[in-house]
Design a protein that fits this description.
The protein has 196 residues and is of the alpha+beta class. The protein has a domain of 120 residues: OB fold (Dihydrolipoamide Acetyltransferase, E2P), CATH 2.40.50.120. The protein has 4 helices and 8 strands. The strands form 2 sheets. Strands 1, 2, 3, 4, 5 and 6 form a 6-stranded antiparallel β-sheet that branches. The chain has a two-stranded antiparallel ribbon with strand order 7-8. It starts with a helix and ends with a helix.
Length: 196
């Protein structure tokens, strides 16, 4: 009896921690409108899993079907929960990504992004999509057409990076900002004290 109870507890606990995705609708031109960026590309490298349980996969895009991105793009994905995705360098993927915020593309295992398998018998995406990887590429080429990549800006024969950056001030810049902040706080303090 004890063995039966332990077996039931182990089975139900492992089941309760499994990733549960709703059934995907087969991809249509209308459903493609739900995604901000759609492309076919190869994984160049994978970043480390961070404390928010996500990682970045660096892709080189072969064919861009939707969106405005450079040929090299960063995609965020779940790397450490029940719904984690398994991406590896040199894997080929069709990616359906959404912007969570500016310049932060994310994919989910519960959506249409799919990996290319050497053998169609291994392709578990066929269950929901009803298309092989090659058939899906054909669908995208026919219905969305191949788009041009965003080109880097060239100024004086030098390529400039126009993407947004959070640049930190130098050490002296930080000290200057701190001193100015203290000075402003002191002025506000003395002005408010005199009014009392």
């Amino acid at each position: 009896m004890r063995i039966l109870l332990i077996s039931v507890l182990i089975f139900t606990s492992s089941y309760s921690f499994a990733c549960e995705c709703s059934s995907l609708s087969p991809l249509s031109k209308e459903l493609c409108k739900d995604y901000d960026v759609i492309f076919y590309g190869t994984v160049d490298s994978i970043g480390a899993c961070n404390d928010k349980w996500s990682a970045i996969a660096y892709f080189t895009i072969s064919d861009l079907y939707k969106g405005k991105v450079h040929q090299q793009v960063e995609i965020n994905f779940d790397c450490n929960t029940e719904c984690m995705m398994s991406l590896a360098p040199d894997d080929e993927w069709i990616i359906y990504a959404k912007y969570l915020k500016f310049d932060f593309l994310q994919i989910s295992i519960c959506e249409h992004s799919r990996k290319k398998f050497n053998d169609d018998a291994q392709d578990f995406y066929l269950i929901d999509t009803k298309r092989t990887f090659t058939e899906e590429l054909g669908f995208l080429k026919t219905n969305l057409e191949i788009q041009a990549f965003v080109q880097p800006t060239v100024v004086n024969n030098t390529v400039t990076d126009t993407s947004r950056h959070n640049t930190q001030p130098s050490s002296w810049g930080k000290v200057t900002l701190l001193l100015v902040s203290l000075l402003v706080m002191a002025i506000v303090y003395f002005v408010t004290r005199k009014k009392k």
